[in-house]
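Dear Dr. V.,

Thank you for agreeing to look over these. As mentioned in my earlier message, I'm a first-year student in the group and I'm still getting used to reading structure tokens, so any feedback on how I've presented them would be very welcome. I ran two proteins. I've put each sequence directly above its structure. The first is here:
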Amino acid sequence: MPDRTSAQPGTALGTLFVERNLDLVGKLYQRSVYPAALDVAGGKRLSSPLVVDLDPTTVCDLACPECISSQVLNHGQIGKDRIVRLAHELAESEVRAVILIGGGEPLLHRAIGEIIEVLHGAGIQLGLVTNGTQIHRHIDQLATKLSWVRVSVDAGSADTFQSFRPSRGKRSAFPQVIDNMRLLASRKQGRLGYSFLLMQRFDEDGKVTHSNYDEVEQAGLLAREIGCDYFEVKAMLDEDHYTVNQRAEDIELVETQIARLRELEDDAFHILYSSNWQAVRNSSDPVQPKDYHTCAVTELRTTVTPTGVFVCPYHRGNPKGRIGDISQMTFAEMWSTADTTVIDPSEDCRFLCARHATNQEIALLPERPAAGGLAEDFDPFI
């Protein structure tokens, strides 16, 4: 079994969490990551990616109108037997971290508990992005076997939650989600995050008809009271992943609330900006030019879904970004024949990409002296 020595759940909190775990470029200089990054910089293929984004299912129990994954929803799931075998295949590979995500809601897959057990037992670090409705069903495993859980809440009240994240029934799922987060916070060994995606709806004249912008502070206070480690503000993207610039008064509304929340920060609770909200608040151009034609990060991490394997989450469901299918072959067989260069970032990734700076850094590695001060492993989620 591969040796995996990454930090265990719960070890990278406080200032260390803020300064290191969010530094995607800095993560390249970990002892177990740097050799792989250097190989990729030199044009070599890896025996497996280091990180896998795994979509167990495309089924979701919410019906969010603004869901950016709407085009890939309700296309089935990876079969129970196949996904358990996949977990064992990843366990025998050089994969160091798996993010359970979607697509759909990962906790709705009936084999999710077994998947977590297999991967965690192999020393693979686990992260989870969830809507929070099913946390209570898997509380023991989520509390003890995951490095982090990020819940997409996007509201500070039941009414706003029901507007932007409606359940398929009549009642808002907000109380259940908050109760679940509170339960997990009381038992967690890893990190728990409250994710807030800023959303607005407009009428034909461009007037705002619905917004959650005025609930940022309310949601942040709730996140702290629940026991979350961080509260993250994110900007809404269009269906092609481009940021949507906002009116100055709306940015000011959000920033004023964030400033008040920052006064409550301490070693146990942090306010985070996503890179796309930073771009919006700085009125950056939604188009991010790239002067390279292959994405090095696609060799370091990949996205496995029920409908195929894709170069990254940005291209989930995009036929051009599809590099394989684990339904007909093992993960190792798929990866050995995958062409991770099918996407040209200069043409296909003109949106703001969180791994752009990582790609730029990898390109420079061969020109630099051998790194002498590599960091001990602290976060495999590169």
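The second protein is here, in the same arrangement:
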Amino acid sequence: MTSSFEALLPSTERALSHRVAVAQAEGRAPSFVGAVARDGRRVWSGSRSCVDGHAPDADTQYRIGSLTKVFTAVLVMRLRDEGLLDLNDPLEKHLPGTRVGEVTVAQLLGHSAGLGAEAPAPWWERTPGTVRPELADVLGDEPLVQPMGRRHHYSNPGYTLLGALVQAVRGVSWEEALRGEVLEPLGLTRTTTQPIAPHAGGWAVHPWADVMLPEPTEDLGLMAPAGQLWSTADDLCRFAGFLAQGDDRVLCAASVEEMRTPAAPPAAGDWEGGYGLGVQLVHKDGRTLIGHTGSLPGFVACLWVSVADGVAAVALANATSGPLTAAVAADLVRIVADAEPRFPEPWRPLPEAEVDQELLELTGPWYWGTYAFGLRLGPGRGVALEPLRGAGRRAEFRPLPGGGWIGLNGYYAGETLRVVRRPDGSVSHLDLASFVFTREPYEQGDAVPGGVDQAGWRGL
């Protein structure tokens, strides 16, 4: 048995095709493309069009709007990984003269810098970038509308600043950096700043009548890093694999995981979603989805990835409003993940080189006060600590070079777990961020903070 999937079941494919057909009909979209990937490889695509016999396919370009922001964030994270900047650096350190130089790179990535949501009028999405030739034209007279670093407030000008930051540090344009550092290494040959045939045309559909109006397609100029790109379902499925697993040619898995980690508290009333470093996070149907939505006049788009399920979905439409691509993409993920759940990797024993008798002796139950925990060995000499009953603080730990382990997730992320031994070398207890774990609850004569009542355990 293998965990790879060559094709979806016919019943699953029919459910996916039906969802796209309903989306196109109810959303009144001139055309609609859906696609699903498993572990970075497209396994299904389908489309519907208002023109008989002229449906688009997974190689048809659509404008993806704010999905562009994920690509821009990847470029910034590459600069961080190369040591050319720190996410806590103020913008002024690398891009002086913006008048908002105190905001940090991380705040811009996570939309917590306090910048306004939009550039000053006229509406930047429907006017050429030449209307805003300088950053000052993008930011306006009062660029800050929220306290810096206090809350999530989505900002398109913030990603214009990040694009300018990439250019200032790299010494090449945002477009050139994107093409050479992300698109070409990942094989995204159909992701471009300008449309290349075959591509869909953008349309506005009248809200109260079945008539259409063509939308203008503008070059956004300085605003390009916030929403310029065109792409295809095929390319976005490949990009989904990168967002789930990383690619050392672009960003390592740890840095991509960092992008998927919440960076700022969600706005009040928006507890079902959040934002990482250039990546949207939503909780839907009991699973966490990462990716981004996008829209520009004439187009709406969405890419969602369920990392846990190894499933990603793309939804693209060429209408200004109507098609709910975010909901459709989430439904496509759900249909596949529920109907055809991925097989777990087969259980295998640890490599012989990782079997250590001293580590084996640490496994089993430990007690923090009267709370029972179990310590389990993992790969690479790592350990996991988890409550034996009910909810509690679970965490995985990786070994440190000098001994002990560091927490990787949950409450104990970044905290150190170490073994404390008695003078004779026997194990006394585990110390985790000052918490003492003993082999017995409140073990007499051991290092229990506050001591143990000498009368011992008693009945009523």
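From my reading of the second output: The chain has two domains: 10-339, 352-437. The first helix runs from residue 10 to 27. Does that match how you would interpret it?

Kind regards,
E.
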